[in-house]
Design a protein that fits this description.
The protein has helices spanning 14-20, 34-46, 64-73, 97-114, 128-134, 165-168, and strands at residues 56-61, 85-92, 118-119, 140-149. Helix content is 33%, strand content 15%. Helix 2 (34-46) packs antiparallel against helix 4. The chain binds flavin mononucleotide.
């Protein structure tokens, strides 16, 4: 493999975005431009899904009071309350919905990141009370709350705690070293 991280980049290409994307849990008190918000939501909408089912809804929250209420409900992500934007991802109760919506979430994260906007995945289902706050029908599940905002601290140098490639990648057969 080439070390693409050391190559000059004219703009953030896809690998660079993946390489540097990190979970961002604190945000500047600065609103996101409408065009950036729209691009993030579009990235979710445009994502491919099993049988093109698109079993998702993206509820865009910018109202401070609603963000605070969501933060109070998200035990694993109270920092949602400090974000200038959150997107709540609700899914149909169908077979591929979690896979499909997870893929859409990653599209939104990468699109945001390319615009300098940090985000994170908060919760994994079990967010029943969020439905009441946002008028989400009982026929849907709430998969995640995604807070977005400009990172409060410098991030994105690509320093990650990940298993080494040799532990997770295999060549031709399981157990044969990829590198
Ligand atoms: C399915 C899923 C659920 C997650 N849930 C939470 C969560 O509830 N709260 C949180 O702060 N981070 C959550 N995260 C973020 C992970 O903790 C984070 O991506 C991981 O620790 C790697 O961090 P890094 O990308 O900054 O290296 C979740 C991530 C995924 C993919």
């Amino acid at each position: 493999m080439t070390n693409r991280a050391s190559e000059p980049q004219a703009s953030m290409d896809v690998f660079e975005a993946v390489r540097t994307l990190l979970a961002v849990r604190s945000y500047q008190d600065k609103p996101l431009p409408d065009a950036v918000v729209r691009r993030i939501v579009e990235a979710g909408r445009l994502t491919g899904s099993a049988m093109n089912g698109q079993p998702w809804h993206f509820i865009v929250i910018r109202d401070g009071e609603t963000l605070r209420r969501l933060g109070a409900l998200a035990s694993s992500g109270p920092y949602v309350a400090q974000a200038p934007l959150a997107i709540v991802v609700a899914t149909e109760k169908t077979r591929f919905a979690v896979s499909d919506a997870s893929r859409a979430i990653q599209s939104m994260f990468l699109t945001a990141w390319a615009d300098g906007v940090g985000s994170n995945w908060v919760g994994f289902g079990g967010l029943e009370k969020v439905k009441t706050v946002l008028d989400i029908p009982a026929s849907l599940d709430v998969l995640a709350i995604l807070p977005f905002g400009y990172p409060a601290r410098a991030v994105g140098r690509g320093k990650k705690q990940r298993k080494p490639l040799r532990e997770v990648a295999h060549l031709e057969r399981y157990g044969r070293p990829f590198e």
